[in-house]
Write a structure and sequence with these properties.
The protein has 10 helices and 8 strands. The chain is of the alpha/beta class. The protein has a single domain, classed as Alpha-Beta Barrel (TIM Barrel). It has an 8-stranded parallel barrel with strand order 1-2-3-4-5-6-7-8, surrounded by 8 helices. Helix 1 links the parallel strand 1 and strand 2 (about 30-35). Helix 1 runs parallel beside helix 10, helix 2 (about 45-55) packs across helix 9 (about 215-225) and helix 4 packs parallel to helix 5 (about 120-130). Mean pLDDT is about 95; it is low at about 165.
Length: about 240
């Protein structure tokens, strides 16, 4: 399902259309990350915050996101991962996870759910066959990353910069060293995101990791009105 040399792309459901997601696949993306709109996305920068605002103004509901997953699953076998904050799903965690699995999702990442409070979530995921994916950051101690790696599933998402999401230039100078240290402690696949926006960034990451994630670069394009064809070319141009 999840594999090495993965090019993953993120869009917010209800902001990016079904056609935009399909365009990313045509452009060479190996994994789709589908953001569930939320009114207080504190881990995200202005680009994705604005995308979530646009999606909410269109009255995008959880069931709309699941229907998008169903349509994408019928069109492709690529892994589909739902990115969400805990608040939109907390009151209906088990039915949401079951519906996500039935719709065709392969994994779920709850951005703001601490590992210590995730036992119920991980248990449901194991029971129904979803990968519970977690995030680590430059400030996360290595012993904690090791614990995350032992309890998570699918892959470890490494946010390679401090702060919130957003397009940046280049990769951090210490990234290779940091990823090598993580490799010693984690057997999961390792995907790197936060600010990746060029082919050079992608190549640098793939020297040490199993994949890279591009989000704000695509989300910004959708926000300025990019067509599906434009998004396809952007993805194609990023493929190492």
């Amino acid at each position: 399902m999840f594999k090495k040399n993965t090019f993953a792309a993120y869009l917010t459901a209800g902001d990016g259309s079904y056609e935009h997601f399909l365009a990313l696949l045509r452009g060479g993306v190996d994994l789709l990350e589908i953001g569930i709109p939320y009114s207080d996305p504190v881990a995200d920068g202005p680009v994705i915050q604005q995308a979530m605002e646009r999606a909410l103004k269109k009255n995008t509901k959880l069931q709309d996101v699941l229907e998008l997953v169903r349509r994408l699953r019928r069109a492709s076998e690529v892994p589909l991962v739902l990115f969400t904050y805990y608040n939109p799903i907390q009151a209906r965690l088990e039915p949401f996870l079951r519906q996500a699995k039935e719709a065709g999702a392969n994994g779920v990442l709850i951005v703001d759910l601490p590992l210590e409070e995730s036992e119920e979530y991980r248990s449901f995921c194991r029971e129904i066959g979803l990968s519970p994916i977690f995030v680590a950051a430059p400030t996360t101690p290595l012993d904690r990353i090791e614990k995350i790696g032992s309890l998570g599933g699918g892959f470890l998402y490494y946010a390679c910069r401090k702060g919130t999401t957003g397009v940046k230039r280049g990769v951090p100078a210490d990234l290779a060293e940091r990823l090598q240290e993580i490799r010693k402690r984690v057997s999961l696949l390792l995907l790197v995101g936060f600010g990746i926006a060029s082919k050079d960034d992608a190549r640098a990451i793939l020297n040490e990791a199993d994949g890279f994630v591009v989000g704000s670069h695509f989300v910004r394009a959708v926000g300025r009105g990019a067509s599906a064809e434009e998004l396809e070319k952007m993805a194609y141009d990023l493929r190492p």
